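look at this fold:
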Amino acid sequence: MFKQYLKQALQMLKENRLTSVISILGTALSIAMILVVVLQFQIRLVGFRRSRTVTGCSISSAYGPILKPIRTTVTPQPCRTV
């Protein structure tokens, strides 16, 4: 049964190439845009800030008001080796 559905789907994609390409690209673009919006919201919510150390292994975050950038300084923590 699954094999039949797959054959039908591939046949429909072959028949309507332009419609299929537009539909697939539109879906991919909308998913990408939703991911960008969610990522931006999370960055603003948490206040993600990278430490400026030479090793670059420390990432600090501080919770603050929603959708407002945090202007306080966060001291970087030393890197721990495992």
